[in-house]
Design brief:
Length: 142
């Protein structure tokens, strides 16, 4: 394994860890958003449609929570020289991580305002940037 692949895998693993660790802090925002939305869903939808909407929000939350895990696994797969599979997992996990960041960040800006949400999600941004950098470095590396 070349140094480039090692650095790419290590960046992805550390980035995934940061996404996962800081995801627990944003998890409260997602649960709060779900708890705020759940009673209001029945105002707009009823029966099976309301249940489906609540289920969709819950599934979205799970995908977002597992984004960091997918990035970490992708980094580990790159470390064993399976770059295409690793890059794909990083892509999927990074996309889910970005979606989680946007939802949590938007909620925090709405509730708190000012620069504090930017600082609160700094580890998430750094982890996501490391994951994207690792994916980019693994491109074409042998």
């Amino acid at each position: 394994m070349g140094a480039r692949l090692f650095v790419a895998g290590a960046l992805a693993v550390v980035g995934g860890f940061l996404m996962l660790a800081s995801g627990y802090t944003s998890r409260g925002f997602l649960y709060t958003a779900l708890n705020v939305a759940e009673p209001r869903i029945s105002d707009f939808l009823s029966g099976m449609a309301a249940s489906a909407a609540v289920l969709a929000v819950t599934v979205l939350e799970l995908i977002i929570a597992l984004g960091g895990v997918a990035v970490m696994v992708g980094g580990l797969i790159i470390l064993v020289s399976h770059t295409t599979t690793g890059r794909t997992l990083i892509y999927l996990g990074g996309g889910a991580g970005f979606l989680g960041l946007v939802v949590s960040f938007g909620y925090a800006v709405y509730k708190l305002g000012g620069p504090s949400p930017v600082l609160a999600y700094l580890p998430y941004w750094v982890g996501l940037a490391m994951a994207v950098s690792g994916r980019w470095l693994a491109k074409g590396a042998r």
